[in-house]
Amino acid sequence: MRIQRLISENPVIIFSRPSCCMCHVMKRLLSTIGVHPTVIELDDEEIGALAAHSADSTSTAPVAPAVFIGGTRVGGLESLVALHLSGHLVPRLVEVGALWV
């Protein structure tokens, strides 16, 4: 329940494990664009809850780190970078109100 509330209350949120270097790269990419996401470090129990929330039997992506934009799971670092390189990240951030241009 806490996970769902956090996702719905924050336009951009990153769920991370403690001392996660990929989360650091995600934060740097977003801050370079001008977005400062909410970052939540999860313990093992909360990672299980996030896994249940993100359940997709075809996905091989790790549960954390995971970024959500506008309540929708983008994925991990690779997915975030792909969204940025394709030119779709900034318009999506504008759409959810996380960035003004």
For the residues shown, what is the average pLDDT? 86
**Strand fraction band?**
15-25%
Major sheet attributes: 4 strands, mixed
Q: Which regions are unreliable across 5 or more consecutive residues at pLDDT < 50?
A: none
Helix content: 40-55%
Count of DSSP strands: 4
Note the run of SSEs as H and E: HEHEHEEHH
Family: Belongs to the glutaredoxin family. CC-type subfamily.
Protein name: Glutaredoxin domain-containing protein
Keywords: Cytoplasm, Redox-active center
InterPro entries: GlrX-like_pln_2, Glutaredoxin, Glutaredoxin_subgr, Thioredoxin-like_sf
How would you summarize this macromolecular structure in one to three sentences?
The protein is of the alpha+beta class and 101 residues long. Helix content is 47%, strand content 17%. It has helices spanning 2-9, 21-33, 44-53, 77-85, 89-95; strands at 12-16, 38-41, 66-69, 72-75.
What topology does this entry show?
Layout lengths: L1 H8 L2 E5 L4 H13 L4 E4 L2 H10 L12 E4 L2 E4 L1 H9 L3 H7 L6
